[in-house]
């Protein structure tokens, strides 16, 4: 497999994906803004309350959940969570992280592909696909298949939360950090959003991240609607703070809080959404 194969990349990354969401002020904004919408729209999590069929009232699927940062957050708040990830290393870490926090009875984790989820139709009360795993499905037809799978396993009217990596922020990343080695990538990524091993070999410096499709906000919304979702809200998780990790890591607490306030204020503004590093869609099945 290519060094840019997503499964290989996340196997090698190991604990890095768990650590990413608490690494700096900007990644903490991604996590905090995501969980704000989860807390608002998730179903009740009281395990003692059952419906007429006797099933638990809050079974949540975490697709591409990696080492389980969101799974742990969900389980700590009373939800039963099933995590699926392409990387065997990430699945093992998710199990460890749940066990260390006394959550093993409420978390299952297994290796699987979001294009063919190992669950029956209408299984989950909510579905999450957070942090950008859908962006690693570069082929448009396969991405449509993955979106159809997210919808298939969600119950009628269940909330579905999907976040992807933004195209404009990806272009800013190249310009800011690797212009000399990767300026040849700018035009193709701006046009198609596709970042592939072939493109990096042809137009870049030969060193690449995991293959990815970077989204414009309108494109993301259109693909979700084509899959049959009702998109209730698009959210810019980092907004105006996107690509500012280094600068904010050296800022004092009061300044960081002011930035957080501005990001929260503008997180549903369409321009801030499109410029965000991660774009969250809050959908209804």
UniProtKB/TrEMBL annotation:
Pfam families documented for this protein: Methyltransf_25
Q: Which domain of life is it from?
A: Archaea
InterPro entries tied to this protein: Methyltransf_25, SAM-dependent_MTases_sf
Coiled-coil blocks = none
The chain positions of domain Methyltransferase read 60-155
Would you tell me the protein name for this molecule? Answer: Methyltransferase domain-containing protein
Q: Which organism is it from?
A: Halococcus salifodinae DSM 8989
| Native organism taxonomy | Archaea, Methanobacteriati, Methanobacteriota, Stenosarchaea group, Halobacteria
């Amino acid at each position: 497999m290519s060094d840019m194969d997503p499964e290989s990349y996340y196997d090698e990354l190991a604990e890095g994906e768990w650590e990413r969401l608490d690494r700096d002020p900007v990644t903490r904004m991604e996590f905090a803004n995501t969980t704000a919408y989860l807390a608002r729209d998730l179903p009740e999590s009281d395990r003692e309350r059952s419906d007429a069929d006797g099933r638990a009232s809050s079974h949540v699927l975490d697709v591409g959940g990696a080492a389980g940062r969101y799974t742990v957050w969900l389980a700590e708040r009373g939800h039963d969570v099933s995590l699926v990830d392409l990387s065997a290393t990430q699945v093992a870490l998710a199990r460890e992280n749940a066990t260390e926090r006394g959550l093993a009875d409420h978390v299952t984790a297994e290796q699987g592909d979001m294009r063919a989820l190992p669950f029956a139709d209408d299984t989950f009360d909510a579905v999450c696909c957070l942090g950008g795993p859908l962006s690693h499905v570069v082929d448009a037809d396969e991405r449509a298949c993955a979106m159809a799978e997210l919808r298939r396993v969600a119950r009628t009217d269940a909330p579905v939360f999907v976040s992807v990596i933004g195209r404009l922020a990806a272009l800013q990343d190249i310009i800011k950090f690797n212009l000399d080695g990767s300026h040849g990538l700018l035009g193709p990524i701006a046009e198609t959003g596709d970042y592939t091993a072939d493109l990096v070999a042809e137009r870049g410096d030969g060193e690449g991240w995991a293959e990815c499709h970077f989204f414009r906000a309108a494109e993301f919304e259109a693909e979700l609607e084509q899959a049959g979702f009702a998109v209730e809200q698009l959210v810019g998780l980092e907004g105006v703070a996107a690509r500012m990790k280094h600068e904010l890591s050296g800022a004092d607490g009061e300044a960081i809080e002011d930035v957080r306030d501005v990001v929260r204020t503008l997180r549903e503004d369409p321009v801030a959404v499109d410029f965000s590093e991660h774009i969250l869609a809050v959908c209804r099945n």
